Amino acid sequence: MNTTIIFDVDDTLYNLMSPFEAAIKEMYPDQIADEDMEELFHAFRFHSDDLFPLVETKELQLEKMRELRLIKSLKQFDVETTSQAALKFQEIYEKNQSQIVLDKEMHKTLRWLRDNQVDMAVLTNGPTVHQYKKINQLGVKNYIPSERLFVSQEVGVSKPHVGVFKHIEHTLGLPNTDKIYYIGDSYENDIVGSQCAGWKSIWLNKYNKDMSAQYYQPDYTLHRDDSLLELLKKILVRN
Hints:
Elements: E1 4-7, H1 17-27, H2 37-56, H3 62-75, H4 83-97, H5 104-115, E2 119-124, H6 128-138, E3 149-151, H7 152-155, H8 162-172, E4 180-184, H9 187-196, E5 200-204, E6 220-222, H10 228-238
Parallel strand pairs: 1-2, 1-4, 2-3, 4-5, 5-6
Helix pairs in contact: 1-4, 2-3, 3-4
Organism: Vagococcus vulneris
GO biological process, one term: small molecule metabolic process
Cofactor: Mg(2+)
């Protein structure tokens, strides 16, 4: 039975904080200290993950969700903003995302997996059109065919819900969950979700979060300087 490697996109295949930080510095140049930028970024991602399911159920418009996630995040740092400014921030943020590139380690990893004919796929949360823009900008289709790319809005359910993982199993015909490895940066969405689905998980713990007290634990944890490719080579040899 073949091993299948499935990737998240945001902050996994590329550095999501870079376009975010550039947009914040352009819109709010004197209001967020450099030492607070990472914490603001995490707040932004938390509110994004918290609000996006309401977009999928049509309880909240996408534009309103994008406005609210920034307003809520900035408020934690006592920074007030307007709806108009939040939408302007989104324009700048999207412009910056149109210039994203694959992380160097990910480029090397995807190329090696493709050249060695390892089964791969992508599963990402987010609006369909927006996520495919990023997928295209990153050149993911050079490594993974279109029919193996899955976006939560298109599927109709988002991570960490088990349903989106089971949808991929069914669509790709993957009966053995012990041979599916999911790689992502979000403990809540990627690790908890894939573990609940019975998949193996590789957590890219870029920000050294301590989740050791939590019930769900990743099968493997990598930090900033660890090599994903070397880990995958070891896994594939064992499998």
